[in-house]
Each structure stands twice: as structure tokens, then as C-alpha cells.
Amino acid sequence: MSRAETAGRVSPLWTFGLFRSELLTTFRRWRTLALLGVLAAVPVLVGVAVRIETGGDGSAGGGGGGGPAFISQITNNGLFLVFTALAVTLPFFLPMAVGVVAGDAVAGEANAGTLRYLLVAPAGRSRLLLTKYATVMAFCLVATLVVALSALITGALLFPLGDPTTISGTRIGFAEGLVRALLIALVVALSLIGVAALGLFVSTLTNSGIAAMATTVGLLTTVQILDQLPQLHALHPYLFSHHWLSFADLMREPVYWDDLTKNLGLQALYAAVFGSAAWARFTARDITA
Amino acid sequence: MGEASATERDGTRPDGTRPDGTRPDGPHAGPVADAGGGDGDGGGVIVTRALTKRYRGGQLAVDGLHLTVPAGSVFGFLGPNGSGKTTTIRMLMGLIEPTSGTAHVLGRPMPRSARAVLPHVGALIEGPALYGFLSGRDNLLRYDAADPTADPRTRHARVAAALDRVGLTAAAGKKAKAYSLGMKQRLGLAAALLRPRRLLVLDEPTNGLDPQGMREIRTLVRELASDGTTVFLSSHLLDEIEQVCTHAAVMARGRLLTQGPVAELSAGARGRLAVTTPDAADAARVLKEQGVADVVVAEERVSGEVPERDLAEVNAALVAAGVRVRGFGVERASLEDAFVALTGEGFDVAG
Fold this sequence. Notes:
The structure holds 2 protein chains of 2 kinds.
Chain A: H1 2-7, H2 14-27, H3 30-53, H4 80-89, H5 93-112, H6 114-120, H7 125-158, H8 174-191, H9 193-205, H10 209-226, H11 258-284
Helix pairs in contact in A: 2-7, 3-4, 3-5, 3-7, 4-7, 5-7, 5-9, 5-10, 7-8, 7-9, 7-11, 9-10, 9-11
Chain B: H1 6-12, H2 31-36, E1 44-54, E2 60-70, E3 74-78, H3 85-92, E4 100-105, E5 108-110, H4 114-117, E6 121-124, H5 136-145, H6 155-165, H7 181-192, E7 199-203, H8 211-226, E8 230-235, H9 238-244, E9 247-252, E10 255-261, H10 262-267, E11 272-276, H11 280-289, E12 296-298, E13 301-305, H12 311-320, E14 327-331, H13 335-343
Parallel strand pairs in B: 3-8, 3-9, 6-7, 7-8
Antiparallel strand pairs in B: 1-2, 1-4, 4-5, 9-10, 11-13, 11-14, 12-13
Protein name (chain A): ABC-2 type transport system permease protein
Keywords (chain A): Membrane, Transmembrane, Transmembrane helix
Pfam families (chain A): ABC2_membrane_4 (PF12730)
């Protein structure tokens, strides 16, 4: 009987089957595609705005002025649109998108009732949670790459490309500039794993996907505000968003690693703390939805 | 509903083919049974002992449940809504941790052995739940991917077979959100049938189906049962239980009132004498004279409790009084009569 042969054996690769299914399910949701669409539109908007602002006179933006990092250099070199776009989306758009996807990961399935069927399949609670977290992290990477690619294409179309100048003032080759851009995108994606873990934890607390998404995005905003209050200076190094913009240090020559490692360490800490909390909650929870 | 024909009630239920579920577990002795050691309760596929669930609010949902589901049975789990059926099913499936007591499924403790037990169990719990933005086929592919013991190489073939079995092949490519309630119910059933199962747990499987759909589901349940699959079927429809089940248990307010073979359950309640006649008023009078208690007149049908005396005399008395008797007989007690006898109240279908 074929059943007797297959029933008892568990392929060590089965988790990847579930992971693949999870990825497909996540990226086929309209909401996910809409979020990626919004993220792709941001660099286009920034690029067009800069192009219109500096249109005609060809003046090379110069040094001063406000605005996000690197914005003044875009007219000289379209590559800088990548850095600007990431600096613009990292404080809010990117973590918001991650918060929505992470918040919905478990709570949304509970809300739709599909969670009980996954568990009865049986997906296994720890493995399902791990799969969910891996998928949210994959979304972090994809979202960041969407912003970077959209920015690169927009920058190439609207502005000249050339060897970029680092913050330290030295010139590096265009190829190395591209490598640095990719590296920055990776660091930005890694900067989001703290929010992802937080969102996943919130997601295990409720049966309402909307509530989990709103809570996660609300927490994100709160943390951003707290990070602005000088009175709470002592608290700042522990807020997950505090070192986010340190990715700019990758454009120094030589690269300044201090804040970068602090950022990644902090994200790892958040992932460990909220990942464990999510696990403790999800494996002990009564599934009543 | 309307299909509850008397003939089906009176004999064609497949009781004879499966005497009290004592059939040997032979062809289905899978790895779980081998590893499970001795089933202490004579091969009970589901065995609970003092199973209790108290929710955090203090509400006692299930109270000291001792349930034994024999292997090979079609087991009806009856009770009004809110009687603790679904909480029990969730505990059996490892979704909810019992407050106290034990539950064994296929000889193994739940929820501890969920990973070993559940691949052999197909379940439909509180209606189907689907990904609306995925097609019916993709929904099944996803659920199958969640089962670690399901072979990915045969996945597409098994999904196609399950869709075919519930008659959804033509609609397999449609988005699930465009499905009617009945189609969703069938897709949920298909998910339970993705692999050969030793136990099927079906919570209200005919909910939302039209009479034709209900008949199809019942036929399917009988087919599966004749293959030897144990079917645990919860319902608030007494007709349904009577038509397809060999065994039943009745719950009310978290407690188990009774369990056993359906024939025995209904035998516990007494049948009623029924007379069909155009002269209902005269018939009622004569029946009362003959010592028939609780006489009820409903248009051309007069019924009452079966009297102690010979029924032939009762019939003769009716004829002698000029009553035109068109039908005369004792109706077997239904499960509903048994339920009323047990609880002293009607079966609240609306619940």
C-alpha cells in the first residue's frame, strides 16, 4: 500500500515545501502587490520632483540645503537616487509595509479560519511560525530591492550615471558604486527584521488581522516619535529605529562600521526577544478561531 | 430534510454490514497503530476520559467527557449549538489544550502526538476556511503542502482526485471567493480527503448544502465508511444522524448524556401507535376508550402511546365503531424521541 510507505516518512525538505507555499500565498495577495507598488512609486516620485526642481538650469545642486541624504547629488549621478529613495522609505514606508505583512501573518490566517486547517494538516506550530517569520524576512528583502531597483531605473532614465563620490569625498568606480548600493539595500532589509519580529509577536496575540496590523504600525510610529524626544535620550539606543540611517556609513571611504554593527546587533536582539515571545505565545495558545 | 423516508429509517441503514464497529482494524493498521501500543479501550479510534475544558472566562464548555468511538463506526455526535461539540472536536484535533482529562486519537494522546496522528485524520471543523484569492485547486495544494508526510510528487494527482471526488473538477480553477457556500463546503471536504485517512472528523458537513448536496455528502460518507474509514460526524440534524450513523453520542450543556449504537438509543424510547383515518375525531374517542394515552390528532392522523392490550383488539374496536381505518401500525421511535426522553425537552435546532 502506498499509504503505508508514505505516511510515516517525513522528508527533511518538507519545511521548504511549506515555505514555498507560504511565499506563493503571500506574494499572490493583492495587498502585498499593492504595498510593493506603492514602494516602487516612491523613487519615481522623488526622481521626478528633483528633475522638475532642477530642470533646465542644470545647476549641480551644490552642497547645502535640507532634505533627505544624498538628494543634492542626484542631478549629477542617478545612482544616488537609490540611496535617497532608501533614506526616504526606511523611516516609514518600508517598516509600515513590513508591519502590515508581519501583523497579518498569523492573525490574518486565524481570522480567515485557515490557521486551524494548517495546524490540523498538521503544519506544526513551531515550523509554521518559523515559516511565517522567514516569509516576512523575505518580504523585507523583496520590498527593499523593489525600492532600490525602481530608484536605479528611474535614476538612469532621468539623470546621468557616473562614478559616484563617497561622503568622504573620494571617488569610487561605478561598478563599486553598484556593489555598495546592493550592500546598502541588504543592510536596509536587515534593519527591518526587528519590526518584523515585533509584528509577528503582535500577530500571535489576536485573531484579527486588522488589529494586529494597526497595532504594529502604531507601535512603529510611537517608537519613531519617542526617538525624536531629547528628554528620552537614555532610551534612544534601545529603540529599533535609532540606528536605521546608519546605512549611509557604507558610502564612507573607508566604511565606518560602528553604528552599522550597533544597528544589526539591535535588530538581532529584537528578533530574539520578540521571536521567542511569539513562539511561547503561539505554541501554548488555544486556537479558537 | 424531506428525504427522511420511512423505508430508509426502518431498515436500509447499513447496520448489518458493520455490527457495532467490532470489525478488525486489519487493513488500516498503519504506523500509528503499530507504535501506539495497546489501545486500552478495545480499539477505540477516539477515547476520552474525564475530558474537561474550562475557558479563561470560567465558562465550563466540556465537563468530564467519557467518549469512546469504535473503529469502523460512523459516529454521530449530536447536540444543540453551544453544547460543547466543537470544543470537544478542537481538543481532539490538538487545537485546544484540555483543562483536565485525557484524549486519545488512534491510540495516541492528543495534543502531544498531533504530528504523528493528524496525517491520518481528515477534518472539517466549523465549516470550511479558504483563501479567497486562490483558486480551489491552489487552496488544496497549500493545505497539502502543510502536511509534512504528504508526498510532493503525488500532490497534483491527489488534489485532482480529491476535487473529482467532491465534484469540483470543473470549478477547480475558479477563485475560491467566487464559490457558493455549498462549493466551499465541498472544497473543505476535499481537503479532508487529500490522502487516505483512518479517521474523518466532520463538523456539520451538510451545513449550507441544498437537499441534493446533502444527499451527495451522505452517499460519500457511506462510501468512505464502507472502505473502513471511521467517520466522526457532528450534527444538530437528527435525521442526518439517523440516516448515516451506526453509533451516536448526545451532548447537552457540556455533558455527555448517552452514547451507543443508534438502534439501541432509539430502542430506549417507546414507539407510538398511529392510525390514519378520515374519521379522526371518532378514532381519537375510541382509542381513549381502549386505554391509549396521550392521543394526538393531526388532520387524518391520530397517534398515541402504545397500549398494553393486544393491538388487534384495538383495531377491531375502531372498525366496529365505524371508523374507516386506512392505516394502522406502530411507528418505531426516532432518535428525536430518544433525545426528548433523555433531556425532557425538545431538540433546539434553531439553537
